[in-house]
Amino acid sequence: MKKINCAIYTRKSNERGLDSEFSSLQNQEEACKAYILSQAFNGWEYYKTFSDGGISGGTMERPGLQALIEEIRSHNIQVVVVYKVDRLSRSIFDFHKMMQEFSRYDCNFVSVTQSFDTSNSMGKLTLNMLLSFAQFEREVSAERVRDKLAATKAKGMWVGGVPSIGYNLKDKQLVPNEKESQTVLLIFKKYLELNNISDVANWMNQHGYRTKKWTTSKGENRGGKLFSHSSILRILSNPLYIGKMPHFAAKKVYPGKQPAIISQEIFEEVQKKVGNFKNGVREYRTYIRKNTLMTDKLFDDKGQPYKLTSTTKNGKKFQYYFIRKGVHIPVIQLDGFVLDIIHRADLRGIDLQAECSNITFNEAKICIKQVICVKRDTKCHLQIVIDKKAFLDICHKYPKGDCCQANLIVPKVEEDNIILLETFYIDNFSSTRLQNKTSQNVLSVHQLNESLVRGLARAWQLKKLLEKGLTTREWEKASGMNKRTFARYINLCYLSPRIISDILEYKNPRNFTLKQLMFLASEHIDFKAQEDLFK
Fold it and tell me: What is the pTM of this model?
């Protein structure tokens, strides 16, 4: 009889009770194991359990679920067993995507307490009804929580969680912490003096000030870290310190019940310098769209749109198309690359009288229907969909010249569209320091990964502390980090010199993050093995 590997997936939405002697996850696992044992006559065997504790079923970003899907893709699992359907997902859209993935790799799905057969139409209808109710329950619960938070904030009350620096929680009310209040007041005064948030953060850190410390319900100590640009900005822009209660999600501010620790005059003076505020809540800038070629037209292969964002460095503005954290493609370079592709379209097989090499930026913007950008590691595949009629009408305006025959792109022609395909490479998707090097058909953007360079510099600074012969407690105090973090940085000092040289020369073939580089350094393998893994 053929062996059938059965994996169990368990999930709990919150962390309450996870550390008890017998948790909900264990209960789900035991019920699923019993079911697998009852199907032993069919060749079913227990393979592995995948769990996610304290994570909502409304998201796919679950470590246990992702590990399960990877095992399915490796053909190691033939059946996934869950206690209830909503343990796998509470989103109909996500569930259908998972069922398609299961089907692609010949993996079946079983719910122990809700018997149904997805091989027939009635079973599929039953499954969809169960999922609809699961999603409805999740959305109703979320609305109820949001309404309760909004009503609590409207009364000026603290809704829970770790209090902001400057306050303690007593009888569910915020009361000033004398020492922390002085720190907050110092931050406001230093900003008015230095007029730069990063300078304030550096000054606070150099003089021994740290962020708020607190203890979790499990007795773990948190906080007490160095101040950063963002932490200083949050303090400077928080109306909590003038006795008000902000509701950032609703962009509203209510009178609070906590005492103020900053005067209204100082707070308003700071806000004039920090940024735009309305009713005490920051208004985030809307980005200029008229200078971009593909705003609202750039998508990934799953139909998710790229959005427009920007950053300012040294007084210069950099704009990016981004879709998720860490994936930022520079607007100027990508727009120029797409326009160059359109200029190189070979129209001889479509219309001998059409000339596209002189088409302008605004004309190209009118013609582009959609651009699909699919990222695969450092390589990106572009599919540019152009309105055929509008494109040819514009191209007919230009006289037919001597078209350069080199590097022409032969388009795919449909009834209403012209489709152009091209590829470009990018080393690091999140830097503002760019060097554009175009070589024929390929756009290569080499960028300095500032995170890696800062990590290497920090490692050598810590190594100097180590060489001074300080005790463990002394260098922990001097570096502001614990023994484990200290060791992870020190490992970077023993990387291959060639890898360090490549990073400083803007080369990062595998697009390594600092965390991945630390892991590579911790393997304690020889330089050649390190270089092979880095390539």
Answer: 0.38
